[in-house]
Amino acid sequence: MRVDYFCLKTKEMKRQSNIRFLNESAEEATIDIYGEIGYEGWDRSEDENTARQLSEELDRIKAIKAKRITVRINSLGGDVNHALAIHDLLAEHPASITTQINGLCASAATIVAMAGSERKMSKNALFLIHQCSAWIGRANQETLSQELETQKTVNQRLLSIYNEKCPDREREIEELLKANNGRGKWLTAAEAQELGFVTDVYNETRKTACVSANAISENGLPELP
Asked: Judging by DSSP bridges, how do beta strands 96-106 and 68-75 pair with one another?
């Protein structure tokens, strides 16, 4: 049985882009994370936004001793294992981390967004957290029971990350995770800031990547408001 949490693998998301290290400055570096989190292809050349790729980019940034890193995010999510690893790699980095959301930030992508001490979000963007999920093929009572316990553990890990950035909002965050039968609820930038998910809302004037309605429904996410 293979389990892929937040498995959002659609044609709209694949191969859009990759983790990209942009500005080779001693002061500041920029990393783009657009598209699916943690897509692993047949070989490394096909990988998308994996923890290994981010680790390699952070090594390059360490080499130039950048003091600040901005991580720009536009993603419906992906694999939670990669997202957790990316979150920890960023959080442990000696540089000051700012995450910047433009477009949509959902599922596993929200975990990455929480890595920033400063978390910015375009006023035109949307944000969504939900309970973890898994694609399960043929399974018996024992494997289903084990999977349930695993999901509970993962959900508690996610809740801990969100609560760290949103103190005194635990009940509201739990309700968001359970909303729409665990599929979550889209938040505006103002709502995300009110809860503490983001620290600043800015005016994004550039066009951002569009995601079709099919990509939303196929991934089991609530309809966009």
From this structure: parallel
